[in-house]
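Tokens in:
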């Protein structure tokens, strides 16, 4: 094991983690009471720990892995770039990888997007989109400081991104630090915020935008939305036409549409972009997670020429977009992103996943009648299984019971890594997952549900 040769043994490493590391989104008190799982290697859709145990990566290493771990073409592209240069600044200089990547992203982007701004993570891509939207109107001489967001939205963890977020548990703590926004009801059909019955859905939650924009006429810069799937809230799949309806209302009021494709982009919903399912043409698009195939941190904010042109002026007119990062458009990240796109073409990834999406649905059907499964939601390779105490009343387990966490722990004992979002078990396999692995993934999660819930009686 290379890790052991270089430093401590597994026991020491665990100790160092417990003594010095603060993990993201992690209740650290509980973390310190348990042995940390240290992943040392990867292979295809598997993660391998410091003891050599193998685990199926059922969440694509938090929604990023596309073609699997250690893909030879991905590895080779990054090594080749390393032989040229690891990093050169993007402030005042450019480099071949970024120029080519920008061209290729624009070629494949929906609608009229024509400009790419690079940063390092999804939250930053969102911050940039918010600044571009606000700056666009300001440069045209209009003061429009307001943004419309959705309840249950997640756009990242920096303060601007949290301001347009809507997940109570994550975001309420910070509310006093945030700028004011106008919320819209979340398209959470299983627990419809407007109390409507599903087959008769009239998209009233989207139509609420009409009232909000009328009330704030001339003051709203943009509406930001996760297209088709509100991911972090528990894979909440929007009803058909919801996104299109938002686009139409925004257009009528001349308000910009920002789509946050950080989770849904790069094939996750079965098409390259979620927008494509409804022929939506955004003014701004945020991409991150899958952009480098899950290898390195990179993100991009794509804008239309109309927005870009509003920032063109002599320096003394102060219309410049003052935003940037030390590692903006890092060349290793760009090389990984280019290899990612090459593999999409070479391996016909999107075509190849269509049958696997159907298989995934078929496997999930076994869970539909489970007495403690309230709803199974799926869009392509994004799946949320909502666990409930009681199906009829849709009542949830008490937060202190940590049902989602318990199911995930059981799955790990059975060689599968998944993550809960509250009591929703998320499955988000790499696009490269095999049919046999899909069956294993769903069956292990189903068994884990049974084991944990049987123990509760
Ligand atoms: C993960 C996510 C983000 C944040 O991306 P980071 O790279 O973690 O900052 C933003 N928006 C959506 C929809 C996401 O799923």
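Residues out:
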């Amino acid at each position: 094991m290379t890790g052991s040769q270089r430093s401590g043994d597994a026991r020491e490493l665990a100790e160092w983690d417990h003594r010095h590391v603060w993990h993201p989104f992690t209740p650290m008190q509980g973390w310190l009471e348990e042995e940390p799982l240290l992943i040392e290697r990867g292979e295809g859709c598997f993660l391998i720990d410091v003891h050599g145990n193998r685990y199926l990566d059922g969440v694509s290493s938090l929604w990023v892995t596309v073609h699997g771990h250690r893909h030879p073409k991905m590895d080779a592209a990054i090594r080749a770039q390393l032989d040229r240069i690891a990093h050169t600044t993007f402030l005042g200089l450019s480099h071949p990888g970024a120029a080519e990547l920008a061209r290729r992203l624009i070629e494949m982007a929906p609608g009229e997007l024509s400009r790419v701004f690079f940063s390092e993570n999804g939250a930053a891509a969102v911050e940039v989109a918010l600044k571009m939207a606000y700056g666009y109107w300001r440069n045209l001489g209009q003061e429009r400081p307001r943004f419309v967001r959705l309840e249950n939205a997640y756009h990242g963890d920096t303060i601007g991104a949290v301001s347009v977020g809507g997940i109570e548990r994550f975001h309420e703590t910070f509310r006093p630090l945030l700028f004011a926004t106008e919320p819209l009801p979340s398209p959470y059909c299983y627990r419809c915020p407007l109390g409507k019955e599903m087959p008769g859905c009239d998209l009233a939650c989207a139509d609420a935008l009409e009232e909000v924009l009328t009330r704030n006429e001339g003051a709203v810069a943009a509406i930001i939305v996760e297209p088709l799937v509100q991911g972090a809230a528990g894979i909440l799949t929007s009803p058909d036409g919801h996104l299109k309806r938002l686009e139409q209302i925004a257009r009528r009021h001349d308000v910009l549409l920002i789509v946050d494709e950080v989770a849904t982009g790069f094939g996750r919903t079965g098409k390259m972009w979620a927008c494509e399912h409804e022929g939506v043409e955004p003014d701004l698009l945020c991409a991150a997670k899958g952009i480098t195939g899950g290898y390195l941190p990179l993100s991009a904010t794509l804008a239309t020429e109309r927005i870009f042109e509003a920032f063109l002026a002599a320096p003394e007119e102060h219309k410049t977009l003052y935003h940037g990062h030390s590692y903006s458009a890092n060349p290793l990240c760009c090389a990984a992103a280019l290899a990612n796109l090459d593999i999409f073409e070479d391996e016909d990834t999107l075509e190849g996943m269509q049958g696997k999406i159907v298989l995934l649905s078929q496997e999930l059907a076994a869970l539909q009648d489970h007495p403690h499964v309230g709803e199974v939601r799926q869009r392509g390779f994004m799946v949320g299984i909502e666990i409930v105490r009681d199906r009829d009343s849709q009542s949830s387990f008490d937060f202190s019971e940590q049902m989602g966490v318990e199911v995930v722990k059981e799955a790990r004992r059975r060689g599968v890594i998944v993550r809960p979002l509250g009591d929703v078990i998320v499955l988000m396999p790499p696009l490269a997952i095999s049919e046999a692995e899909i069956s294993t993934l769903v069956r292990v999660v189903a068994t884990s549900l049974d084991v944990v819930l049987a123990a509760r009686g």
